[in-house]
Amino acid sequence: xxxxxxxxxxxxxxxxxxxxxxxxxxxxxxxxxxxxxxxxxxxxxxxxxxxxxxxxxxxxxxxxxxxxxxxxxxxxxxxxxxxxxxxxxxx
Length: 91
Prior knowledge:
By secondary structure, the protein is of the alpha+beta class. The chain has helices at residues 2-15, 33-48, 60-69, and strands at residues 21-25, 53-58. A two-stranded parallel sheet has the order 1-2. Helix 2 (33-48) links the parallel strand 1 (21-25) and strand 2 (53-58). It is globular, with a radius of gyration of 13 Å. It starts with a helix and ends in a 22-residue tail after the last helix. The model has no long low-confidence stretch (mean pLDDT 82).
């Protein structure tokens, strides 16, 4: 539960930055309904704020849960399997 709270807080802060929020979930070994709920809530908040939340990479476990729950239409489009996230520019 503490990980979900931390993720939710981080997504809220990132959404307040004004730009798109990109999530790299390629390294996520485990996700359950609570994690999916955080992602869906963040997507909803982003849409309401006219912001974009993109999942740029997702592990097989993340994809499996999204497919199993048929929530892909409620989340941002997932990058194709095997796609690499865009490199992050140094600030």
